[in-house]
Design a protein that fits this description.
By secondary structure, this protein is mainly α. It starts with a helix and ends in a 10-residue tail after the last helix. Keywords: Membrane, Mitochondrion, Transmembrane, Transmembrane helix. This is Cytochrome oxidase subunit I.
Length: 36
């Protein structure tokens, strides 16, 4: 059961991270930081 919960948690975390990166790229890098 612990592995099942960890799998769901890692899946949700990876999906949210990919969505954040995709939005950050679509907005031209102004969301997280524009060091360049």
């Amino acid at each position: 059961i612990l592995y099942f919960i960890f799998g769901i948690w890692s899946g949700i975390l990876g999906l949210s991270m990919s969505m954040i990166i995709r939005m950050e790229l679509s907005m031209g890098g102004n969301l997280i930081g524009n060091d360049q």
